[in-house]
Task: inverse folding
């Protein structure tokens, strides 16, 4: 009889852990801001130091067909920034550290990953970001924009 009650407790614990994990996964689903959903043009800003990652992004964007590539920042609805966390930015004289404070608040990019971020062109505010495993200029497992495409698929599913 004791075995059954112990098994029952163990089973209950497993079910509880699975439920918590499912709720956590649901909570991590990021809703795309309307500015991202409505955007039609994107400018690619590569801050990784690897031109191959920019070429990969252009190829994936063209194949996906969701956005048109803008010639410059001024003509873009969004900036798609690629960075590996090793970004160095010059702060113009007189701006001081406050000008870079929004960038300092960004979460660090783990080694071996590239962050794909969508920014508002005028303010530089980050609207969405994801990370993909990379090794230098090489994309590991899948495609660089998989997480972004998945975010759009989740958005479309939620609309129905």
Result:
């Amino acid at each position: 009889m004791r075995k059954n009650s112990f098994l029952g407790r163990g089973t209950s614990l497993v079910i509880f852990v699975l439920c918590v994990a499912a709720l956590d996964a649901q909570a991590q689903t990021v809703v795309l801001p309307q500015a991202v959903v409505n955007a039609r043009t994107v400018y690619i800003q590569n801050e990784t130091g690897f031109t191959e990652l920019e070429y990969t992004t252009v190829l994936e964007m063209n194949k996906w067909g969701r956005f048109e590539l803008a010639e410059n920042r001024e003509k873009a609805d969004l900036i798609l920034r690629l960075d590996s966390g090793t970004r160095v930015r010059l702060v113009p004289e007189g701006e001081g550290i406050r000008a870079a404070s929004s960038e300092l608040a960004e979460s660090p990019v783990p080694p071996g990953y590239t962050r794909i971020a969508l920014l508002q062109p005028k303010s530089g505010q980050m609207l969405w970001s994801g990370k993909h495993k990379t090794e230098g200029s090489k994309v590991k497992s899948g495609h660089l924009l998989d997480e972004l495409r998945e975010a759009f698929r989740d958005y479309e599913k939620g609309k129905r």
